[in-house]
Design a protein that fits this description.
- This protein is mostly beta strands.
- 10% of the residues lie in helices and 43% in strands.
- The chain has two helices and 19 strands.
- The longest helix has 19 residues.
Length: 230
Amino acid sequence: MKFHLARPALVLASSLALASCGGGGGKETYPVKVTISNVQYPGLILTTNGQEVAVPMPAKAGDPVVVTFPKALDYGTYYQVVPKGGTAAGGGAQPAHQNCATNSYPREYGTAGQTASIESARTAAIEVFYSCSLKAYALSGTVTGLTSGSLTLINGSTGGQVTVTGSTTTTPIPFTLPAVAYGSSFSVDVFPQPDGFHCAVANGVGEMKETQEAAGGVTNVAVTCTPTTP
């Protein structure tokens, strides 16, 4: 009698053990967690497997933002976390004035339960990292009147510089300084003045804001050189 009573208890215990290990027909699921660093403006929307999540601004400037997609993925499901309408390199629904791209590891794609990450070593989860940077825009223009020698143009706000060589056949002479990030100021100057000339800069001071962004940057910096009196 005792033996017959023990058998149902053993079956029940085995069923409970299988259920706790994902047996009995159940599937282990994996939440998709994304950590985004350097979010400074709103607008980033991430998608994967028919889901999307809007990335909020950090509670404290400079802190990373962590979001989790609403629905976890079944074991063996392929995933690829990208900005809505974009790719892992950027584009699509990005924050205003920024571009966000994935870090090299862990990758933005993989298979639930099979792609390793720091998080997956601790819990059944998928971990993806994105980092955002400010978009940078052109700072360029022309030099006229420099028929010999050379001059150096410097952006005193960032330290970027370019050397322009004088010409008697090409005028005006185009130049391009290193791009300037959104929200940053710029101040173009000639330093030092070239031998035999005095050069003045127009349209060389300002800030890369909405107007300049819409125009694709500042492309009308004008440097005019005149010969100095012997």
